[in-house]
Amino acid sequence: MEFIDTVIENLIDPLKLDDPSSLLHVEGLVDQVEKVLKELKFLFSFVNFVSDRCVEPEVQHTFFTHVLEVAWHTIMVTWLYLPSHAGGSPDPDSAPAEGYPLFSDLLRSKIQPIEPSISKIYIDVLKAIKLHQSQWYPVIQIKYVVDCEVGFVETLLHNLEELPFILSGLEIKKMLNFLRAHLLIQVSECYIQDIDSVIVDAGILVYSLNKKEKGDLDFRVKIQNLQAMIYLITRKTFLLQSNLSGIDRVGSADFILDNMEKFLSVYPNSVVSVKSQLQTIQKELKCFQAVVETQVGLQHFVTHTNGLVYEVEYVFDACKKKDVPDWCLFLWILNIGEDIRVLMAEVAEVQENTAFDLVLHNITAAAPTRTSSQFASYQSTNEEMVGFKDVINELRSKLIKGSVNLYLVSIVGMPGLGKTTLANELYFDELVVSYFDIRVHCCVSQEYKRKDLLLALLHDVIDDTAKLDREVENELADRLQKLLKRKRYLVLIDDVWKRSAWDDLQSCFPENNKGSRIILTTRHYEVASYDKHVSDPHKLRFFSIDESWTLLQNKVFNKERCPLVLEAVGKSIAQKCGGLPLSMVLVVGILTRMKKEKHCWEHVSTNLGPNIQAQSEGTLDQSYQNLPHYLKPCFLYMGVFPEDREIQVSKLTWLWIAEGLINTHTERLYKDIAKFYLENIIGRNLVMVAKKSSDGRIKTCRIHDLVVEFCRKKAKLENLLERIR
Questions:
Q1: Secretion signal: which residues (predicted)?
Q2: Does residue 499 have a pLDDT over 80?
Q3: How many domains does the chain contain in total?
Q4: 331 and 257 in one domain?
Q5: Is residue 451, in this structure, part of any structural domain at all?
Q6: Which of 78, 139, 337, 699 is at 20 to 30 A from 480, Cα to Cα?
Q7: Per-residue pLDDT at 375 exceeds 60
Q8: 19 vs 308 pLDDT, higher one
Q9: 498 in a structural domain
Q10: pTM of the model
Q11: Which of 645-664 are b and which e, b meaning 16 or more Cβ less than 10 Å from the residue's Cβ?
């Protein structure tokens, strides 16, 4: 670095030869020296940027060897063109006929990133920096780090001017100018590494814009990634510098939002690119503000509202001043909107009543009944059931026909056979729904608490959950018994493992001679046949080969016909699943993620074993092995959750983030990455959607008992979790 600095200082001397009266003056030499000097200064900034960072020795050696070579060439070429001191006056014809080709060749082949070999050296050293970026933290003063970053940004901006793809580089140029003008003025240690990462990625992109590599460059995706990272830094900068005073801004929100509305109506062209998004944010904030201000028990949301209002005010001002790029504002507004909707969903969990729904969702008609809401939720997350048509008809008849006496319909079968799916199909069947006055359900599992089961049953029919939570166990049992006594009721008790669980609940289900029914699912025959009200337990059969093949076709080809070339191997796969619906669903998750080619399906068929008892675990393992490496720990982490419980997606994703399971090498937002991961796992049928919000977002999910057990075993085997609860 000192050597290059010395070369730069020595090159300043020939500039003094610009006086035509000087004996050492050579026509045109000074212009060439100035060009080389300018390029060397930018290269010196590049060297400064690289010198403090962790780089692989081989790549570092190649880069600095190139830099030293440039310095030596510069000295030699300059010396060759300087006039001789020995011969007295310079020959006026001593200047080359075609200028100074050695200078031009030095610029083109050694310094400027036009030549692919030079671009490769620059790209390799930046990729090496990126590879070790997570391990780097500046050991020098932040001010010096920023000076290095500013210098390298200026180098990149200069190099963009030298490249042939100026139009393609315009967007990068705008981003770098914004970075230099706004984010590198007051840099905090909190996000110095974020800025460094953006600059490195921008450098890789700039030096990739040469003719030979242009065809392979996914330019648009890389630009969007850079924009997303710059947006994150911009928002983080605002949050760190805002230093919210803690003043209650809910009251001032009216003023801010009204001003926004007036400005948007009078000066729409000033913010034309984000006008519709701003209008949506304004409406959502007003809606959320009304809920927080008018509903009891929501005071803890005021702090979140303060931050959002303050942030919207800042973004709105930035739109008017035009000092933040449109793409950055667009991303910012979208994420503020997402934050508002997340808070609204959390509020909905706290206050679920008709008055709240009217404010939050602008519903003008009366809210639907709890039963119809449940049915709509079930319909939105479950497709038409394939198979067991005869079983459904038989069991439906037992539920809505026959004796007026209390009657228990028990479904027994091995894990993965579809007991819960079948029970839910009956529970939400339209004929069944219309026949019973009231329906309640709960899921028991191996470990349970009687109070939790009673609360689950009562929550289906009573809105005042806070009051229920304060009651003791016996009060809850008495309340449930009295509630059911006056009605024709249907109770679904899913996944009962022990007789004691039935003993804990049966006293709550009165014999009222109204034709009430109980559906019970279990994997144990002695539990299914235990109660006096039970008929012969229904032993759930395996899928037939035709049902298995129909399910596979419907799921993989979306109810279209399977291509003839895949039909034979497809039927073979269906048959090897042994009639076990869970195995079928897991195999579908594998097939939908691979090419619809015969050799691919044959590979799946070969790996499916013939043993039905081990089938599900083997299929699960194959599904696991087919997961991308970054999804495997996220999937295994599902083992920390209890069996047969709905998992809050917001809680799951934050746990993933907290445990460091989200891939931070990508520049997308953490929550967006987590959402992508979860949707990918759900798409492979390893996790099931339980509930969705009104806007289609996944609210809760479930995981099958066998899958939970697999995750726990595999996580212990791979030492992923120190302790699984």
A1: none
A2: yes
A3: 4
A4: yes
A5: yes
A6: 699
A7: no
A8: 308
A9: yes
A10: 0.43
A11: eebbbbebbebbeeeebbbe
DSSP annotation string for 656-708: HHHTT-S-TTS-S-HHHHHHHHHHHHHHTTSSEEEEE-TTS-EEEEE--HHHH
Q: What is the DSSP letter of 285?
A: H
Helix (H), strand (E), coil (C) string for 439-497: EEEEECCCCCCHHHHHHHHHHCCCCCHHHHHHCCHHHHHHHHHHHHHCCCEEEEEECCC
Q: Is 362 part of a structural domain of the chain?
A: no
pLDDT in tens, 510-519: 999 999 999 9
The token pair at 669 is 């937002």
Phi, psi of 618 (to 5 degrees): -65, -40
User: Is residue 489 over pLDDT 90?
Assistant: yes
Give the residue among 696, 717, 725 at the shortest CA–CA distance from 345: 696
Domain that holds residue 425: 402-539
Cα–Cα distance for residue pair 22/371, rounded to 1 Å: 99
Average pLDDT score over the chain = 74
106 contacts 77 by C-beta, under 8 angstroms: yes
Q: Which residues contact 538 (CB under 8 A, 6 or more apart)?
A: 391, 394, 395, 409, 410, 411, 412
CB 446 within 8 A of CB 610: no
Reported as a single tens digit per residue, the pLDDT across 432-444 is 999 999 999 998 8
Last-in-domain residue among 521, 539, 557: 539
d(CA 685, CA 670): 23
Instruction: Report yes or no on 233 lying in a domain.
Output: yes
pLDDT over threshold 70, residue 198: yes
Stated as kind and residue range, the H or E segment containing 188 is none
Assign residue 416 the CATH number of its domain. 3.40.50.300
pLDDT tens per residue, range 349-365: 665 443 333 333 333 33
